[in-house]
Amino acid sequence: MNFHTPTLADKEWVEKAFSFGQTDCCEYCFGNIYMWSDIYDNRILNDNGIFVSADFTDKPVFCYPIGDGDKKSTIQKLIEYTKTNNIELEFFGLTEKDKDELNFLFPNHFEIHETRDFFDYVYKSEDLANLVGRKYHSKKNHVSYFEKTFDWKYEPINESNIEQCMLLNDHWEGLNLQKNPEEISEECLAIRKALKDYFQIGFEGGVLTIQGEIVAFTFGERLNDNTFCTHVEKAYGNVRGAYQMINREFARQLQDRYEYINREEDTGSEGLRRAKLSYQPHKLVIKYSAIFKG
């Protein structure tokens, strides 16, 4: 099994494989895999139409296979590959449907566990765009303050403003690096890679400006026919309402084309979990890990 680092040339076949799955999981976005590939040593392969990816940073951990082909054959090859290389076969990112499928294909061969830290938060686009009801009272207060206080403008990311997004990313890193040097440095490096190849990958995003200066930006990509996946949202923390505004305005940009917005997982961060729950998700995508015990 010849894994390789993803390149832009892989985009077409990878997205074709994803189209057969129509999954809700953020792991199945080409741009997401590509932008983090240098950080997590992400590698991929095409096994006769089945997409497989793995994180090789420590020991290989494999994303559950997806695509149009013989999935059982691919999993059997992975069992043999990991056995030959004396490593444990572990899958991540399994949905309830994937869990049932794996148990059917290989009954009693895998030990499966929920992975709460990696549940995806999925919202209705109209909820994020309109913030209707008492449950969004605090969000609306921040938005109202921003609208009344600043001379602001929102527009999609384009050729004329993407350089400013890169500058904001670098400046934001400098302002926040001391909070968690390794994690923030890696995140900003991944964002830099994504912005460099933004248009080739097919990302979609937006910027928020005050008197022409960008104070926030966000972007992501299509996940499936009715869901968009937001990968990045960056704003200056000292600009009250900037995060709430960029969130609302981007949802308004998307709501006519996507019923749902996946804002990914919280990775176990208590602060991030509170923030994501405060937006009242429509659902959590329950995900599992599976370890081969056969």
Helices and strands: which structural class? alpha+beta
The averaged pLDDT comes out at: 97
Count of helical regions = 12
Shape: globular
- Can you summarize the main beta sheet? 7 strands, mixed
* CATH hierarchy, class of the largest domain: Alpha Beta
Question: How many beta-strand segments?
Answer: 14
Distance between the termini: 20 Å
* CATH topology-level name of the largest domain: Aminopeptidase
- Please give the CATH architecture of the largest domain: 3-Layer(aba) Sandwich
Overall tally of structural domains: 2
Order of helices and strands: HHHEEEEHEHEEHHEHHHEEEHEHEE
- Unreliable segments (pLDDT under 50, ≥5 consecutive)? none
Write the layout of secondary structure elements.
Elements: H1 11-19, H2 30-35, H3 37-40, E1 42-47, E2 50-55, E3 61-63, E4 66-67, H4 71-84, E5 90-94, H5 96-105, E6 110-114, E7 120-124, H6 125-130, H7 137-149, E8 152-156, H8 162-176, H9 181-196, H10 198-201, E9 204-210, E10 213-224, E11 227-235, H11 242-254, E12 260-262, H12 270-278, E13 283-285, E14 288-292
Parallel strand pairs: 3-5, 11-12
Antiparallel strand pairs: 1-2, 2-3, 2-4, 5-14, 6-14, 7-12, 7-13, 8-9, 9-10, 10-11
Helix pairs in contact: 8-9
General description of the model:
This protein folds into 2 domains: 112 residues, Aminopeptidase; 145 residues, Gcn5-related N-acetyltransferase (GNAT) (Aminopeptidase), CATH 3.40.630.30. It is of the alpha+beta class and 294 residues long. It contains 12 helices and 14 strands. The mean pLDDT is 97. Strands 1, 2, 3, 4, 5, 6 and 14 form a 7-stranded mixed beta sheet that branches. A hairpin with a 2-residue loop joins strand 1 and strand 2. The radius of gyration is 20 Å and the shape is globular. The longest helix is centred in the middle third of the chain and has 16 residues.
